[in-house]
Amino acid sequence: MTLDQPNVAAFDPVLADEVRRGLTSQPKRLSSRFFYDDEGSRLFSEIMHLPEYYLTRSEYEILDTNKEQLLSLFAADNRPFNLIELGAGDGLKTKLLLSHFVEQGARFTYVPVDISAAALDGLTADLRQKLPALAVQPQLGDYTEALAQLTHQATEGADAPRQVVLFLGSNIGNFAPADAVAFYAQISQQLQPGDLVLTGFDLQKHPAVIHAAYNDREGLTKAFNLNLLRRLNRDLDADFNLAAFDHYELYDPESGEARSYLISQTKQTVNIRALDMTVPFAYGDFIHTEISRKFTRDGIEQLASQTGFALTQWLTDCRHYFADVVYRK
Ligand code: AVI
């Protein structure tokens, strides 16, 4: 290898492969999975506090109002339970449930699962300090791998813990419809009858409310979207000029999809040196970066029935913007 050739092996192969495929496909696309480097995670935490981003506050209200009911369900028949949170992040909303469950003397272990070691370490340290009586068993890794490992270890018998999976914050909205079905089918296969899944779904509502949530006046969502290009500059030695791209958000009430794009504001060529690739952009060319699906009750019931679950609880906030839904295996 000569000195001016990129050392491709040093770059994240999954990122490299997806970027190569995404930027040569028509239309161009990049996966929203790559939003969450340290800066992207920080920006998302700020987005959650924006006045326009109603999702977090709506879900907080639901969990706060229904925490007693949720505990009765999770601990039914006096069984202990494992509370397995997929994509725990900073655990903001879960802490509300955890402190209530600990106060009530519930027999349970909290198992946060996350792909980011930094996020898991931070969350675990914070919980050990704030809720020292809580049993925490962090699991680093991909959701389905971690879930497979956990349920494989599960014991049987009357006092065997019930598995309760949490997937909050409408993270499910970032999956394409077929991927969401495959994901729940996989979770379902790993659970026993009587195990539960609590999911946060953002609901369809006035399109203007949804559009504003992804097009905030402060420009944080724009910064979050553009940060993906900054990441490619750093991780794949690319030279995207962030000022030459704009954020564009579309909400389509027919499909229930909010879609984020990055729009080229000029004719330009971008070099991605780690991939030995140049990407031409015409004025107005776009990269599709995220889908945030909004659901109907019918769609949520259908997802349950297609994947081996029954919908047992439907909890919403006072404006009916968001639903936290319990599926039983
Ligand atoms: C993480 N996820 C549920 C967020 C959403 O609403 O789709 C990510 C986000 N994208 C822009 N703003 C927030």
UniProtKB/TrEMBL annotation:
Pfam family, one: Methyltransf_33
InterPro entries: EgtD, EgtD_Methyltrsf_superfamily, MeTrfase_dom, MeTrfase_EgtD-like, SAM-dependent_MTases_sf
Keywords carried by this UniProt record: Methyltransferase, Transferase
Domain Histidine-specific methyltransferase SAM-dependent residue range list: 16-328
Lineage: Bacteria, Pseudomonadati, Bacteroidota, Cytophagia, Cytophagales
Protein name: Methyltransferase
GO biological process per UniProt: methylation
Gene Ontology molecular function: methyltransferase activity
NCBIfam families (UniProt xref): egtD_ergothio (TIGR03438)
SUPFAM superfamilies in alphabetical order: S-adenosyl-L-methionine-dependent methyltransferases
Coiled coil ranges: none
Record keyword Oxidoreductase present: no
